[in-house]
Design goal:
InterPro entries: Band_41_domain, FERM_2, FERM_central, FERM_domain, MyTH4_dom, MyTH4_dom_sf, PH-like_dom_sf, SH3-like_dom_sf. The chain is of the alpha+beta class. It contains 23 helices and 26 strands. The strands form seven sheets. The chain has a seven-stranded antiparallel sheet with strand order 23-22-21-20-26-25-24, with no helix packed on it. Strands 13-12-9-8-14 form a five-stranded antiparallel sheet. Strands 1-2-3-4 form a four-stranded antiparallel sheet. Helix 7 packs parallel to helix 9 (about 365-375) and helix 18 (about 590-605) runs antiparallel to helix 23 (about 650-660). The protein is globular. The two termini are about 40 Å apart.
Length: about 775
Amino acid sequence: MKALFAQNQLDTQRPLVTESVKRAVVSIARDSWEVYFSRLFPATGSVGTGVQILAVSHTGIKLLRVVKGSHEAGGQLRVLRTYSFADILFVTIPSQNMLEFNLASEKVILFSARAHQVKTLVDDFILELKKDSDYVVAVRNFLPEDPALLAFHKGDIIHLQPLEPPRMGYSAGCVVGKKVVYLEELRPRGPDFGWRFGTVRGRVGRFPSELVQPVAVPDLPQLPAEPGRGRAAAAREVGRRREGPPVRAGSADHGEDGLALPPYTMLEFAQKYFRDPQRRPQDGLRSKSKEGRESRTLEDMLCFTKTPLQDSLIELSDSSLNKMATDMFLAVMRFMGDASLKGQSELDVLCTLLKLCRDHEVMRDECYCQVVKQITDNTSTKQDSCQRGWKLLHTVAAHRGCSEALQPHLVRFLQAVGRTPGLPFQGIAKACEQNLQRTLRFGGRLELPGSMELRAMLAGRSSKRQLFLLPGGLERHLKIKTCTVALDVVEEICAEMALTRPEAFDEYVIFVVTNRGQHVCPLSRRAYILDVASEMEQVDGGYTLWFRRVLWDQPLKFENELYVTMHYNQVLPDYLKGLFSSMTAGQPGEQQLQQVSKLAALQHRAKDHFYLPSTREAQEYIPAQLYRSVAASAWLSLLGQHRQQMRALSPHQARAQFLGLLSASPMFGSSFFSVQSCSNVAVPAPCVLAVNQNGLNFLSTETHELMVKFSLKEIQSTRTQRPTASSSYPYVEIALGDVAAQRTIQLQLEQVRAGVLGLSPSPAGPGAVSRGGRARGEPAQCP
């Protein structure tokens, strides 16, 4: 923008310009300034995201956060996450102030008082962008055995192509209802033609129309169009079928000068998106003979240089971005030891690079290409230059991803080094590939790493030990790496409990606990543990991380000792509160007395005791309401009847039997909450709320008898709200009924364990909360 102003001699004294200059100013501002042409809406997300503002523009939506500026008195807007309209399938409003963005591979849920305005604006943009689009998105997997059909996965973007003409003497067709239907006899895209023809990831073929739906043209803000082609043409290149390796556009003769390149190499990427090498006499590039001149010059552009770059590698239209790219390359050289630090530390240089990649998404591909250039054919006089370059690539890949266009080329580069016997840096190349794949899967770190984490990385320490508390005070100190997310922790602890199936992982959640246990909030499965730790250390240095089971669809297993101990410790406190059994008026029946006494005997044996429990110990093993209904001597007599049977059990077997007996209770597998008040007069408060697979069960505080029940089918959505200035209790808002006749109830809960209420799978994206439905997956997120 500054260059454009200088070129046209614009300032406040000479504001008059031609229409073409005005259009150029608007175009550069629209493409370069991330949120300038956006409508901003207040919004909130889940813990660990810091979402404060939702921005909607012509390119998509952005989740923003206000951060303290370096110069401004107020604050600056930081982009936390970006979703283009090509990613968004549709938007719904499940309940008041709640927005659900249905993406190709996840759901994002935010809360905003202006939810309806947001939906209307997003719908208008999506509708307009879908017009004339030749792209569709897969809504279901399609994995046929026939190689002539196009295989794809849910969420894949497919570029529609004209129907492939048949070979001479042949007709294209398919069998429909035992009848051969010729494609050329059908109206293109007509309602009776149930197949499409398209390409994805270089593969082409036919596929059923009902498995896809229209989507906006994928946006490629990271990459410039190739010379001689517009932006739309560059976008179409993503899905173009390649009969052979591409050649650079603009070459007058694709014969002798055109060099066929294997697909998905860094050289192919450079040929498509780097600056024209014929216009780059600088940076030590040597002139070549006509034969192979372009390819060898491109190879030079991808090889180590001792001199700083004068221009970016990728062709960028904005001169300010070009200056940023040259500064970035100088930082890369300084980190690798090939340029003077000039008063900076390695830590300062690394922070500068990570900050540039965080704040300017358009520069991430440039950063990757620059580092790859400097570690390729490295001839530095510094012995550790190449090693430090790989370390830098490892760090960048752990924090920021690359564009979809660069991804296959970069992955192939890393695989070529990591899987070729005899090459140096095999180990770190494999680690870089793993980091990149995880960053692309989970979205990358939201926060810059702290100084301690960066120092550890520079010293070669890539992990730290983090304490996780299991029920009963069990401790697990797990190795946490830069890319570790909550799902990794769940899977690691589940593996220790001999659980390996994904549906089992869905039933366990990591919680962050602050304010001395008064605030408990579940983490999204995509939340980076080190991001959460960094945020919590600023808020409450005494935070802890809990591992708990929240859903109980899968049957209990009794072989693994840690599994049994963890579950025993989790359900025991609720049992001793009497939440698994109801107390009617009068004495408990004989069958109930026998079961309670046996559960008490099993608790005693679980502590590895053989002797008959004392009166005080018996009182600790039995729910208080039941214990008071029978004389202490009678309880001891009942416990004595089970003594002989208990002697044959080990503590592990005693805990397993306890779980087996208790699992027959209707309320087993419930999460319990103390309800202070309820807006629905049908629910007397205070009471106890038990949330389980059967829905919401409101129990009497005194007898724990079931008073009111709402099945899961009746629940449309839930929303958890933190305490306000006028209320010391958090509340949960639950929408019941159907869309036509919906009613809402509000529950005020005790502070402890607020935010743990969950009723269905919640997406792993920022701001996600659970919705009504089957009780599986993650619980609701705290907004």
